Amino acid sequence: MKKILILCLGIVIFCSAILFLPTSYDRAIYDKTLRLHVLANSDSEEDQENKLAVRDRVLEVLSEQMQACTSRSEAEGMLLEKEELLLSECSEVLSEKGSSHSVALKITEEYYPTKEYDDIVLPAGRYLSLQICIGEAKGRNWWCVLYPPVCMGACSAKEKLQGAGFEEEQVKLVSEEKEIRYAVKFKILETVGKFFGSLFG
């Protein structure tokens, strides 16, 4: 009986998701965005501090050039060119903090939940991501947006999206002025992703 109820719930959620499938504007949000994901070795106070120190160093190293990028592909290419430098800088900052943990870095696609940044809200879904794993990477993580450079600079996140070539409708979709149905859409997509992830993960 329980399995039948779960199946029925899945069908209801799936049908709801069909009504809210991403439009071409939605899809562009994922295709134009590059996230940053830093995973701490553990949840200890020391490891969490080290995670933030690594985050700060990475943002410092990338800030100027990331803000000069004009597309996600350009930002990705720049990261590939700076991979060895980033690894060196991350190792250096950990050493300065007295940590001997290793650092692994890769550009990959990851699932992110719905997340609010400044004056925008990015929907749940899979995004291209610069993933930085410290040690065993079993601690609380930290994430933000490298491109458009939401984590960097003084202007608002909305202005950064506009400067990165997001169309007006795309900016409206993720801004706080969005229609309530978009907020509903984001949560439905997130629920569907978690539901089917629990079934097949």
Write up what this structure looks like.
- The chain is an alpha+beta fold and 201 residues long.
- Helices cover 54% and strands 19% of the residues.
- The chain has helices at residues 2-19, 24-31, 45-68, 72-81, 83-96, 157-163, 168-174, 180-200; strands at residues 34-39, 103-112, 115-117, 120-122, 125-134, 141-147.
- The strands form two sheets. A four-stranded mixed beta sheet has the order 2-5-1-6, sandwiched between helices.
- Helix 1 packs across helix 8.
Question: Characteristics of this structure?
Answer:
single chain; 201 residues; alpha+beta; four-stranded mixed β-sheet; two-stranded antiparallel sheet; 8 helices; 54% helix; 19% strand; globular
* DSSP strand content: 15-25%
Largest sheet report: 4 strands, mixed
**How many strand segments?**
6
Form type: globular
Question: Which structural class should the secondary elements be placed in?
Answer: alpha+beta
Query: What's the gyration radius in Å?
Result: 19 Å
Specify the helix fraction band: 40-55%
Mean pLDDT: 80
Sketch the topology as an H/E string, one letter per element.
Answer: HHEHHHEEEEEHHH
Low-confidence stretches: 15-21, 177-184
Query: Count the helices. How many?
Result: 8
Distance between the termini: 23 Å
Summarize the structure.
The protein has 201 residues and is an alpha+beta fold.
What's the helix and strand layout?
Layout: H1 2-19, H2 24-31, E1 34-39, H3 45-68, H4 72-81, H5 83-96, E2 103-112, E3 115-117, E4 120-122, E5 125-134, E6 141-147, H6 157-163, H7 168-174, H8 180-200
Parallel strand pairs: 1-5
Antiparallel strand pairs: 1-6, 2-5, 3-4
Helix pairs in contact: 1-8, 3-5
